[in-house]
Amino acid sequence: MDFSISDDDRLLQQSVKDFVENEANAVWRDIEETNELPDSLVEGVKELGLLSMSIPEEYGGLGFPMVKKALVHEMLGRGPWGLGTFVSVHTGIGCAGLVKFASDEQKKKYLPKMAAGEWIGSFALTEPDAGSDAGALSTTAKLKGDEWILNGTKTFITNAPKAHHFMVFAKTEQGITAFLVDHDAPGLRIGQVFQTIGHRGSRPAEVVMEDCRIPKDAIIGEEGRGFDYAKACLAEGRTGLASRCVGTAQKAMELALEYGADRKTFGKPLTEHQALAFRFAQMSARTEAARLCVYRSAWLLDQGEQAIRESSTAKLTAEWSWQTVDECMQIFGGNGYISGEYMIERLWRDLRVARVYDGSSEVQQMVISHQLRKGNVQPGW
Ligand SMILES: Cc1cc2nc3c(=O)[nH]c(=O)nc-3n(C[C@H](O)[C@H](O)[C@H](O)COP(=O)(O)OP(=O)(O)OC[C@H]3O[C@@H](n4cnc5c(N)ncnc54)[C@H](O)[C@@H]3O)c2cc1C
After folding, report:
1. Sorting pLDDT into bands at 50, 70 and 90, what band is 312?
2. 193, 224, 255 - which closes a domain
3. With 80 as the cut, is the pLDDT of residue 12 above it?
4. Nearest C-alpha to atom 23 of ligand 1 is from which residue?
5. Mean pLDDT value of segment 13-39
6. Best probe residue, ligand 1, of 155, 360, 369 (max atoms within 8 Å of C-beta)
7. Mean pLDDT of 233-248
8. Arithmetic mean of pLDDT, 337-352
9. In the chain, at which end, N or C, are there fewer CB atoms within 10 A of the end residue's CB?
10. Based on the domain organization, do 257 and 319 belong to the same domain?
11. Which atom of ligand 1 is nearest to 158's Cα?
């Protein structure tokens, strides 16, 4: 078993970390206030090549394996989640479906522009009445002549206001089917743009389709296979998201250690009170364990495995990361609760959503226990 990280990958991680700490964390209060990502940050992630990391080299991307992407997501997790989620939706669920299931023509048209960051991708599965139970979606697509006609509303769609196109899931005669829908397709509009308590600058929104017309060849893969494709995208997305949570937990611990070494109560620094010292040890152990779950899921995906149980397990560790961030917040006492003062409050608000989106923690437990009942109970070694 080899746990080493290559020199190249360390260099990559360091450059992402430097960018996140020096550029993104430097402006976190502005992002909170304006709910916008500064152009300089979007340009910065483009320059680092991060928007192309999922796209194969033949289409102008970096073609990173999942383990390498997990290393990047972990560093993004140290920064504002509006930025992390912008990158991860574009390169994860917004991209995986195209790379895995699109036709050669679709790949040639979309992937080079996505790699250059000129076209931003988005993933539109959730509906107002179909979130955890995504299979109950009601958006329809009907073939009429040379066009599909789509009707329905998707909600909470990350990147929607910035997106060039959406991977949309809709019901056809054969079942749930995936489509590639451009933002300027006739009949498509962005509806409500939501204000979120964390994750600022990402501005999830509704995508409304009213007799939205797209070409017949805008279907992705085979008709009726859309839900399988969605699950494949989510396995990758969940692993990347879990990695971001690990980065956030790690950053929270570092902030709390620094604060706790400085702040004295009862004659000594907080970190020297045994109750808190033990708490740090527990947080460190949880973060290490979560990181290993993430790396293993990423590694399995790189071996071509579906990693259903493992990616859900990795995603479920968002609960541990949440516990860590919440306990770090506690170490800041009253100061932690003051808005805009210490970064810990932003990490707390940012990470909270990871227990809900990309399949909530309850949904991950459903997936894992379903796999266990099917006999998938042991690591595959
Ligand atoms: C900021 C943000 C960004 C998002 N980005 C995207 C995106 O880009 N694309 C996209 O398609 N979607 C996106 N989503 C949607 C997200 O994936 C859904 O919110 C999530 O899947 C939960 O669905 P829901 O909100 O409808 O909650 P519900 O399904 O109504 O669930 C409510 C609660 O009940 C629990 N629950 C539901 N059923 C059960 C059960 N059987 N047993 C136990 N507990 C249960 C859930 O876990 C949850 O805690 C985003 C959401 C947010 C908040």
Report:
1. very high
2. 224
3. yes
4. 131
5. 97
6. 360
7. 94
8. 97
9. N
10. yes
11. 8
Rounded distance from Cα 132 to ligand 1 centre (Å): 5
Ligand 1 neighbours by CB, cut-off 6 Å:
89, 123-126, 131-132, 156-158, 196, 199, 204, 353, 356-360, 362-363
Among 59, 88, 115, the domain boundary falls at 115
Q: Cα angle vertex 86, ends 82, 89, to 5°?
A: 130
Tell me, what's the pLDDT at 142?
98
What domain range is 285 assigned to? 227-373
Structure tokens that stand for 292 in this block: 């290993």
Q: Bigger pLDDT: 234 or 12?
A: 12
Instruction: Indicate which atom in ligand 1 lies nearest the CA of residue 199.
Output: 1
Asked if residue 326 is part of any domain, the answer here is: yes
Sole residue written with tokens 């152009």 = 39
pLDDT one-digit tens code per residue, 269-307: 999 999 999 999 999 999 999 999 999 999 999 999 989
Out of 356, 361, 368, give the residue to mutate to test ligand 1, the one with the largest number of ligand atoms within 8 Å of its CB.
Answer: 356
Distance from residue 250's CA to the centre of ligand 1 (Å):
26
Task: Report d(CA 379, CA 310) in Å as an integer.
Answer: 9
* In a shared domain, residues 74 and 144: no
Mean pLDDT, the chain, whole residue set = 96
Who contacts 2 (Cβ-Cβ below 8 Å, separation ≥6)? none
Question: CB–CB of 54/61 below 8 Å?
Answer: yes
How many alpha carbons fall within 13 Å on the CB side of residue 75? 24
Number of the ligand 1 atom closest to the C-alpha atom of 353: 53
Ligand 1 pocket, mutate which of 86, 120, 126, 195 (most atoms under 8 A from CB): 126
Mean per-residue pLDDT for 59-67? 97
CA 360 to ligand 1 center in whole angstroms: 6
Q: Which atom of ligand 1 is nearest to the CA of 358?
A: 17
Name the residue with the closest Cα to ligand 1, atom 40.
362
Number of domains in the chain: 3
The CB density around residue 136, as the number of other CB atoms within 10 Å, is 10
* Cα dihedral 16, 22, 24, 26 in deg (nearest 10): 160
Give residue 381's pLDDT.
52
CA pair distance 69, 239, nearest whole angstrom? 9
